[in-house]
Amino acid sequence: MMDKDRIEKAVREILIGIGEDPDREGLIETPKRVAEMYEEIFAGLHKNPLDDVKKFHEEHDNGMIIVKDIPVYSMCEHHLLPFIGVAHVVYIPGGNEVLGLSKLARIVDTVAKKPQLQERLCNEIADVILEAVNSKGIAVVIEAEHLCMTMRGIRKPGSKTVTSALRGLMKTDSQIRMEAISLINGRGL
Fold it and tell me: Where does the GTP cyclohydrolase I domain start and stop, copy by copy (predicted)?
């Protein structure tokens, strides 16, 4: 579990380290607020994303299921600054099990709530879905803006990083992969 007292002490030290007075009116509660925020935004460290998975037995024609534009908020593990964007999840069920649509978004949310790299985030989401349901193919695409590139360093606001993770038929069958990409891009079949 989170050690919020330790986080509060560390934030207080950071404030002193940058030359601020942690006892001034506007900062007195900041260490506590940051500790509470960290408990929320890093909750994925202490949660198994499979715990929220709900499967339904459903006759399915092996067509694609897609949930697009799932908001993603995560923290870059290199600078502890946010990256913000959207995830697109496409999968082809294998058999008669499908995931609840909201559960796809919940998987994305849980896996994102820890210090993360976008590339790893894509792969972890795909692997959780693969473990959760027998799938013939999975594609996860994430488009995100990294504040470590926007507000510091290179300072290129608006630049997007796009990553993908492909499993099964999405990786081996170029026609299926192109159909998934077309659906993600809103071009239909």
Answer: 7-184
